[in-house]
Amino acid sequence: SGTTTTTQAPNVGSCEKKDGYYMFSYNTFKRLSQAECKQKCQDFNENNAFCYGWTHIKKKNKCEILKAVFTSVTGVVSSPDLSKEECALSKESSCVIEKTDLYMTTDTEKMDSAADCATKCKDTSKCFMWDLDGGYCYTYIRVLKKSKGRTSGLKYC
């Protein structure tokens, strides 16, 4: 398994997305090789949606793109801007991780400060994003689960 490094974005203000948050879902593509799946993630950009990562299922020759869609909501602060590589909070040392399935979990905690929410994410292993909405901090944690026959990767690694 790869090593994870967490870095502070050079200009945190330019990495925040104000007045909205990301919703995550999958797009599935059939008859794609692993290399084509990885490329599909790199090229993916549709209507304010960005690829965060991908999983290739060898037996079915299927590609799952984990996409993030930005939804406008006044008063919500999200970070980082997932469309910018320089803003990525958590990266893998390898762009292709064998025998893994990529998914995410979330954690919620009552909190009033964007700075405190950002610190919580920074201090949480594999946290790649956070939202502050209505006095609650939502942190998003990347999970790479061992899974035979699947290979995963992140767009920015």
Write up this protein.
With 157 residues, the chain is α+β, with helices and mostly antiparallel strands. It contains three helices and nine strands. Strands 2, 3, 4, 5, 7, 8 and 9 form a seven-stranded antiparallel beta sheet that branches. A two-stranded antiparallel ribbon has the order 1-6. The longest helix has 10 residues. The chain starts with a strand and ends with a strand.
Keywords, separated by commas or semicolons:
157 residues; 7-stranded antiparallel beta sheet; 9 strands; 15% helix; disordered N terminus
Short description:
By secondary structure, this protein is α+β, with helices and mostly antiparallel strands.
C-alpha-based Rg, rounded: 15 Å
- Please report which band the strand proportion falls in: under 5%, 5-15%, 15-25%, 25-35%, 35-45% or over 45%: over 45%
Number of helices: 3
The end-to-end distance, rounded to whole angstroms, is: 14 Å
Number of DSSP E strands:
9
Oligomerization category of the chains in this entry: single chain
- State the secondary-structure class: alpha+beta
Q: Estimate the helix proportion, in percent.
A: 10-25%
Largest sheet: 7 strands, antiparallel
* pLDDT < 50 stretches: 1-11
What string gives the helices and strands in order? EHEHEEEEEHEE
Mean pLDDT: 85
**How does the overall form come out from the CA principal axes?**
globular
